[in-house]
Amino acid sequence: MAEYASYALILFALGAYVVLDGYDLGIGILGLFDRSDHRRKEYTELVATAWDANESWIILAAVILWAALPGVYATVLPGVYLPLVVMLLAFVLRGLGLEMQSSAPDYRPGWGRLFGFSSVVVTLCQGLVVGTVLSGLPQHGGVFDGGALRWLTPYSVLCALGLTALYLLAGAAWLQAKTQGSARRRAARLGRPLLALAVAACLVLGFGLEVADPQHFRFDQPLRAVLFGLLVAIAAACGALAWYGFGREPDARPFAAVLGAQVAGLLALVTATAPVVVPPGLSVHAAASPVGSQVFLLIGVGCCMPVVLAYNIYAWWVFRGKYRPPAEAALAVSAEPRQPVDARTDLMTNQIAPTENGLMTLARRVGFTVLGLGVVAVAQDVFGGQGEWIAPVTITLFGAGSLTAWLVGDRRAAAAGEFDIDQAAER
To answer: Where do transmembrane segments lie in this chain (predicted)?
Structure first.
């Protein structure tokens, strides 16, 4: 049963990635078709708050897949090397364009185009990989037995286009939820056409899977058929709710509906194909690693996943509400009544500035780096095999310590006013 628990973790991480990173990839593509530099700058500022946290889920999914289902790794990777390598390079360029754009005082077209086109490449490559896996990979004895261009099939191309439509829909829904003014109106106007496009793509891919997938779907099993039908009905209801919500308040309703449709659609796909992971016949059990590795993985990932969830939720909480340009945010802050300063906060504020200097900062960073390397060395058990518990416990301590240091540093910086907008500079 451990392999099915690991399989559930992989599905959860992949689902979280599609839901969270899908909308910011869609926003990146939508920016290519927007003529307003002001709105394009707004889009990148929105994505810059969460893109790295969102992408952490695909890394987590890849790590679990590598350790829990090595048979899938050995079969799938050789068949999709080219789109995966291109996707990773596009990830790097996308992050570069986004961060450089975000750090610039105004919109820079070059960085904006880099961000947008790399978002397109990432989305298309992901669609090609998903379509290739769904349509089956030739294998012999658990090893890939196909050509270098096996990933280029009509179904994988359709899947790439369909995933682009889905991400565009999620991006438009997110923009309606997080923006105001012309950006919000434009997103609301685009929502319904994109929803119609996404529904058409899902229908084509759904019916096309019967032809492309070499395995025989077991819808003659009553439980599977009922569950599949229920999930499809939920996805259709969420789609109808999103259609109604575009252009209407509350603005968060379309994104919540799109999110529900995505989750229901992914679960329906798993219901139709499980326990086969790579068609035509590589199942979860056949691809799994030994039980000891599964238990080790479940302990380590089970401890790390709450940490990943925690910083995602914290990031969403910090940047909740509508996006406001810095100048508008400064006016809003100045209009708000000032709260009495807490004595502890005042003490921290007064202590930080005079005691911080370059030497102390350097010493603290060197100390944390040495401590981190030591913890990683222990986690890798470089000092000799003393017990299987060392690695998961140390990795958990390392993750919890890093999260604590980040939260403490964030609060100290907020108390010191480092996040406050310089209103004089804004004028």
So the answer is: 6-33, 45-66, 72-93, 114-135, 155-174, 194-212, 224-244, 256-276, 296-319, 366-383, 389-408
Distance, in Å, from the CA atom of 236 to the CA atom of 377, rounded to the nearest integer, reads 50
HEC profile of the chain: CHHHHHHHHHHHHHHHHHHHHHHHHHHHHHHHCCCCHHHHHHHHHHHHCCHHHHHHHHHHHHHHHHHHCHHHHHHHHHHCHHHHHHHHHHHHHHHHHHHHHHHCCCCCHHHHHHHHHHHHHHHHHHHHHHHHHHCCCCEECCEECCCCCCCCCHHHHHHHHHHHHHHHHHHHHHHHHHCCCHHHHHHHHHHHHHHHHHHHHHHHHHHHHHHHCCCCCCCCCHHHHHHHHHHHHHHHHHHHHHHHHCCCCCCCHHHHHHHHHHHHHHHHHHHHHCCEEECCCEEHHHHCCCHHHHHHHHHHHHHHHHHHHHHHHHHHHHCCCCCCCHHHHHHHHHHCCCCCCCHHHHHHHHHHHHHCCHHHHHHHHHHHHHHHHHHHHHHCCCCCCCCCCHHHHHHHHHHHHHHHHHHHHHHHHHHCCCCCCCHHHHC
Contacts of 259 (CB under 8 A, 6+ apart): 19, 170
Cβ proximity of 95 and 52 under 8 Å:
yes
Looking at residue 152, its pLDDT comes to: 86
Residues 34, 99 contacting (CB under 8 angstroms): no
Token couple for 315 = 């990031």
pLDDT along the chain (427 residues), means of 10: 84 88 90 87 86 84 86 85 90 88 84 91 93 84 77 90 93 90 89 92 87 76 89 93 89 91 91 84 82 82 82 82 66 51 44 55 74 70 60 74 77 72 51
| Full set of structural domains in the chain with CATH | 1-319 (1.20.1630.10), 359-413 (no CATH)
Tell me what pLDDT residue 298 has. Answer: 83
Q: Phi/psi at 301 (nearest 5 deg)?
A: -70, -35
Backbone angles phi, psi at 139, to 5 degrees: -145, 150
| pLDDT score at 351 | 45
pLDDT of residue 273: 84
How far is it, in rounded angstroms, from Cα 301 to Cα 12?
12
Inter-helix orientation angle 2-32/109-134, to 10°: 140
Nearest CA to 246 among 200, 178, 197, 177? 177
Question: What is the model's pTM?
Answer: 0.75
